[in-house]
Inverse folding.
């Protein structure tokens, strides 16, 4: 694993196993905020008092961290479930600069608490945020009507094509409650057609810096 700087100054990681980065080179924090918080979480958060979020996968923990900050800000209770087959080492995690770049947002050490939480057990990080991290392959997910939002943040289709095919998206559709939202940075036509084929309503919306479009899918 190699830590790299992205254009907004925040870190990402280059996966030697898959030959791709965990976040956009145009800005890790910018991408996560745009794709998952603004286009997904905040949309479903309107008038909600509690939400359940599924993160595919956990990676650097940035999506979970930003969700925790949003729960704190909006005072909406969020139960976050993360799935990750290849957890990063503590050594790598301690070098990431997200708390420094967000300038005081992590006043209560939320980022550290999220990473230090035991795997396979739900941990209360904040009065409005809890997390359960599961070490498992995405294909092993088997839940029904359990989540309001899915952050679909798997590596790109050319790296892990099996994660962007019908069986996986059927699992995501089944995992969501009615009116639940799935967001992803990917805007490929074949991905949108596959999402639609399992029952999702598809929106092509403006993407984060460096991408013209992204995808929001609603059950």
């Amino acid at each position: 694993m190699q830590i790299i700087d992205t254009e907004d100054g925040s870190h990402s990681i280059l996966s030697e196993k898959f030959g791709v980065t965990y976040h956009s080179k145009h800005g890790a924090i910018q991408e996560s905020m745009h794709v998952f918080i603004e286009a997904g979480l905040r949309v479903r958060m309107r008038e909600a008092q509690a939400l359940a979020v599924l993160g595919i996968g956990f990676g650097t923990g940035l999506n979970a961290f930003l969700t925790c900050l949003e729960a704190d800000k909006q005072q909406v209770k969020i139960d976050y479930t993360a799935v990750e087959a290849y957890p990063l080492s503590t050594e790598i995690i301690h070098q990431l600069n997200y708390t420094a770049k967000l300038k005081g947002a992590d006043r209560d050490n939320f980022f550290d608490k999220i990473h230090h939480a035991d795997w396979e057990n739900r941990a209360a990080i904040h009065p409005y945020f809890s997390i359960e991290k599961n070490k498992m392959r995405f294909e092993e997910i088997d839940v029904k009507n359990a989540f309001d939002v899915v952050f679909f943040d798997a590596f790109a289709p050319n790296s892990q094509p099996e994660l962007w095919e019908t069986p996986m998206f059927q699992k995501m559709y089944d995992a969501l409650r009615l009116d639940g939202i799935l967001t992803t940075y990917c805007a490929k036509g074949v991905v949108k057609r596959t999402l639609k084929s399992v029952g999702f309503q598809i929106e092509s919306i403006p993407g984060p810096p460096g991408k013209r479009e992204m995808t929001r899918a609603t059950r």
